[in-house]
Amino acid sequence: MVKITSQVKKTLTNCLCHTQTHRMKIIGFLSQAKHGGGFKSQDVQEGSVKIRLYEGRVSQGPLTQTPVLFKVYPGTRAGGVVADMMAANELNSHMFLQSSSKGMSQHLMLLLGGFETTTGEQWLAFRDYGKSSAADYAKVASDKISKLSSWNSFERGQAMKRRRRFIIILLQGALRGLAYMHDHDRLHQSLGPFSVSLNTISETDAPYLISRLKDLAFSVSVRYSELEDSGPLTEGLWARASAASAFTYLEKRAFGIADDIYEAGLLFAYLAFVPFCEAGVMDGLSLQRLLENTFRLDLEAMREYCIADDRLVNAIEFLDLGNGAGWELLQAMLNADFRKRPTAQAVLNHRFMTGEVL
Predict the structure, then answer these.
(1) Three-state SS sequence of the chain
(2) Which has the higher per-residue pLDDT, 41 or 185?
(3) CA atoms within 13 A on the CB side of 44
(4) Is residue 329 over pLDDT 50?
(5) Residue 41 pLDDT class (50, 70, 90 cuts)
(6) What is the pLDDT of residue 40?
(7) What is the CA radius of gyration of the chain?
(8) Strongest mean pLDDT among 3-7, 43-47, 115-119, 139-143
(9) Where are the domains of the chain?
(10) Who has the most CB within 10 Å: 20, 94, 114, 194?
(11) Of 1 and 145, more confident
(12) What is the pLDDT of residues 233-247, one digit of tens each?
């Protein structure tokens, strides 16, 4: 079981607040903002644990006025042991990745510090680069699709070009973050549209878009020395590995990386369909069921099905770019045989993901 040791707590507290007084200044700022009616909060669900997000700014010290997103895990009494494990795992994952001698990736959220309250809540503070996720973008984009019908063909064509470019840049950033994690022997294990943070959702701002991976509570180390570790956060992964006949250390590590690539493939599929369809036509769960249950990961058969539905024409045209390069890449990422899936870097080097097809 991963624990937040007193030394880790001390280190994290010092990252954000150089003194106890400074830490109380931050808490005081939060309290004042909350009672002033201007403090925004949001509840989100990660697994079985309800987490609260707060927005704020550092009030003193070298990080003064830095926008911060506080991620608050409930104490053991409210959230159970799993909440503590998730908080410790997310904290330790970020600390490990941010201590790399190769430098920090700009495509991962930056942990500034954290502390534990007297009630046992674990507060993690991240640099706040923006409130939107890839899921938020997809919803806004989908809502706009119906309005495109009133535009002339030239305007619609330009709008689709902007959308395609934005989505490829978004995916490039997410895959770069994932490639960085894999290069450092870390899996994400909860990659999806809600776990990709965006600094903008405006398609005209595509050149300035930076997507960052977040939510590392289920991250798993695949260093050979740690592949024997088991617990609530890893038992599902290793059970799937055993079912796929991955038993040796080398096979388990390869399976874990390929498992992340499969999730990245589902994210790719989500962004290839949802933003190109009118609201209500397609959602993530329905799309996954089509891929896995109806077509058994046969993308050629799925394409034939989609062609018959006029509501999916924009998505088909996107994946058809480069003589079907999108379908080709998606099929590789969702290959039923984990041994045949590409690495994150190979995905980035694919002609569809480089933007060559645009």
Answers:
(1) CCCCCHHHHHHHHHHHCCCHHHHHHHHHHHHHHHHCCCCCEEEEEECCEEEEEEEEECCCCCCCCCEEEEEEECCHHHHHHHHHHHHHHHHHHHHHHHCCCCCCCCCECCEEEEEECCCCCEEEEEECCCCEEHHHHHHHHHHHHHHHCCCCHHHHHHHHHHHHHHHHHHHHHHHHHHHHHHHCCEECCCCCHHHEEECCCCHHHHHHCCEEECCCCCCEECCHHHCCCCCCCCHHHHHHHHHCCCCCHHHHHHHHHHHHHHHHHHHHHHHHHHHHCCCCCCCHHHHHHHHHHHCCCCHHHHHHHHHCCHHHHHHHHHHHHHHHHHHHHHHHHCCCCHHHCCCHHHHHHCCCCCCCCC
(2) 185
(3) 14
(4) yes
(5) low
(6) 66
(7) 21
(8) 139-143
(9) 6-127, 132-349
(10) 114
(11) 145
(12) 899 999 999 999 999
**Which CATH number does the domain 6-127 belong to among 1.10.287.90, 3.30.200.20, 3.30.70.270, 3.20.20.140?**
3.30.200.20
**Residue appearing with tokens 């569809």:** 352
For residue 35, pLDDT over 50 is answered with: no
How far CA 38 is from CA of 41, 144, 199, in Å, comes to: 10, 30, 22
Average pLDDT over residues 44-65: 83
Q: What are phi and psi of 3, to 5 degrees?
A: -125, 150
Higher pLDDT, 85 or 33: 85
Q: Does domain 132-349 have CATH number 3.40.50.11540?
A: no
Q: Are 358 and 165 in contact (CB under 8 A)?
A: yes
Residue owning tokens 């991620």:
71
